[in-house]
Fold this sequence. Notes:
This protein has eight helices and seven strands. The protein is of the alpha/beta class. The longest helix has 16 residues, at 183-198.
Amino acid sequence: xxxxxxxxxxxxxxxxxxxxxxxxxxxxxxxxxxxxxxxxxxxxxxxxxxxxxxxxxxxxxxxxxxxxxxxxxxxxxxxxxxxxxxxxxxxxxxxxxxxxxxxxxxxxxxxxxxxxxxxxxxxxxxxxxxxxxxxxxxxxxxxxxxxxxxxxxxxxxxxxxxxxxxxxxxxxxxxxxxxxxxxxxxxxxxxxxxxxxxxxxxxxxxxxxxxxxxxx
Length: 216
């Protein structure tokens, strides 16, 4: 969050104001520490996206990245973003569609089971493709959407093995816990992924969407 807020502050210039929101005190503390003295136009607020603590039409634009997939009610969060945006302002939302995830480099049937288990662990794993509808339901006009594949290649595999959104080890464990595959299959699948990296065959992809609407 902190990096994104500082980049937005750079874009809006010295007379602009950027407010970053999160419910986690730890996340807010890290963001404030990293921004100390470098981004005077940025502030960080503990807030719930379902009930934004701002008046109507408080901001020229609102942006959320990888947020609506985790909230209780994506439509309410998008409607709140629209509420606090001025007429003519933009609401921009980024979200992946976990049902589109693909892993190349290990046994295909087990890969499908692992990805399905991982998708179930995301509260709204397919929300990415539904972003245009959420924006229109919130009363926004001129809705546009773009999609692209987010790739994790050989260089990104170490992070995907335990420190990334993908976290293939956690996904394999989830599939085994759900009974979709056995523990032995999970371990063999991860070993096969490691081997595929060594042989240069590994690739993961995920379709992501970014949608924008204009407040009338």
